[in-house]
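Note to self: keep these together.
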Amino acid sequence: MAIVIAVSSLIVSNLLVKDLVVQEQTNMEVWAEAMRSFNSADETTDVKLVLKVLEGNNNIPVIVLGSQGEVQAHRNVALESKSAKDSLAELADIAHRMALNARSIRVDLPGDSLSAPDYMDVCYDESLMVRRLAYYPYVQLGVVLIFVVVAIFALLSSKRAEQNKVWVGLSKETAHQLGTPISSLMAWVEVLKENYPEDELIPEMGQDVSRLQRIAERFSKIGSLPECKPENLNEVVEHVVAYIAKRTSNKVQLSAQMPSQPLVVNICAPLFEWVVENLCKNAIDAMEGKGSIHLVAREETDVFSVEVTDTGKGIAKNRLRTVFKAGYTTKARGWGLGLALCKRIVEEYHHGSIFVKNSELGRGTTFRIELKKR
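Structure:
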């Protein structure tokens, strides 16, 4: 509707401008006739009326040229030159441009020689008001288009915010629903430990239940500002490597390279572990369960960095900008939320950055996480 209104306004304004142009042309014809009357005035001519018509033009630029092209008079013309000689040359140039645009009226004057009739050319241009009216609809159209763009952006932002609320609510409800059965399982594991203290499988069950509790904790933190505290980045990465190594096949080789000194950084350990774990799981899927994953954590000049490199199938260059968007997945049964959540956790909760450092088809991909030093 805004576009329709703007286009309609543009059409109406153009019609009004055309009417004003025709009206100004008529006024200039009257003004030219008044000039002819003034130049050929005698004792019977009403000079006061002629002068009133000539002085009544206060907005239309006009230049009068003689039969030899000399400037005889001008009115409502803004000049840049200060000297009289330069002003005359500038006026002649302006009058020439006016004549080229078919805005010139020739006025014949009574002369003594038939071979060289006397005349003058009244050259004029559009008034400032007509020029402003000609440009105004386009300015109006531009403002309306900006308004439409802002409105569309606000609508998309509102829709995105609504979707985020749905996902946050779903995450928190999932964590809430998992809480009761996890607590029950933890209690049963303790009962089993008391009854069968020498059973080697019960501690493994306890670790899996603790893992479920950690997952529920992660879901509960989505949508709310997590508490970041100093953590040893080395231990966080090692914990992820140890967890992934126990739950993947022997065909996948995991290795980690970290400095000897602790890398202390303010993070939410459960959420950051989730990010690194997601990257590792995606790497395993990209390698189809066979290959190597190498993790590197280091301290650099301005940031702490973690890089996850795999030997998978790689990512095409035209896909590098979309890998972190919700819905992007290369798996037949994937939701495409893993990398989107990773990006949100790193950028919104930890004020860092995550990106694809490099990727080659058939050779592998390196994801890089950067955390600013506090």
